[in-house]
């Protein structure tokens, strides 16, 4: 194993100098990103990247993050990267999830999917970069926290001391053989479609949507396919580019969410600079970056969820395997219907007129 780690570190150093990113280097080596980071935990090596394992106290670590001050929170999946600069807020927990309402972003985690965390130091062309990086059992990153120039380094040092841990043997073994868990979908014939449609119609807010999916044993994309057409419509998979362009032009605030198996990160606010770089559609704003692989969007859906204040409208993007890539929604005021500007923008994706707040 030590020889394997040395080989990984040598290859990483060479490829990093060529400007490659961690995820791409790991993919090129045929290992997970978690295995790439784990190879740099040895105290004996003296490379540009050093990693220290963290204790698996995920909610306690997140609860300590407000003390770091301003940081950059990163959540991604294979097709989209969501980066928001802000301050973590205090979290609230229930039996399943842990949610953080931060300044400039909201984070909701499913920590049952978190297997290993690291404190990472990398000395690169832009100086020293320090981060906390968390991975699932297959070594795929679920969430990362990057210190900024004005972050509180003393609080960070105290956090590392408090949550110093060891490399979890089970996680390391799984990291070495990364596998993708495909979404398993029941045959449509086994789904109570009438019950699903009735449950959808009786929703009283978006927060009831995920429990409804669980109750009827359907995946998200399957539910959209089987829903009453008044609540879910397939739209042009390339429409997200135009939606972002119009939102930027008209100063229309958006709630943009990106998720993976272990975390969902949402940023609410206006977008300004929309730019295409190769296959990537980007939002490049101070304090918020979004990087979306347009070529990996297999389908897009206009989704409508009933609430006590009218329909909640969202544009949802999926990959070829049925994974949710990203979701875009308007920003509605408490107790109000959807903003008319957002409804009008969604109208352009269909042939109907949607009710809105006047």
TrEMBL record:
GO terms for biological process: iron ion transport. Coiled coil: none annotated. It holds the Pfam family HemS. Residues 31-163, 217-349 form the Haemin-degrading HemS/ChuX domain. It comes from the Bacteria. InterPro entries: Heme_Transport_Util_sf, HemS/ChuX_dom. This is Hemin-degrading factor. It comes from Ottowia testudinis.
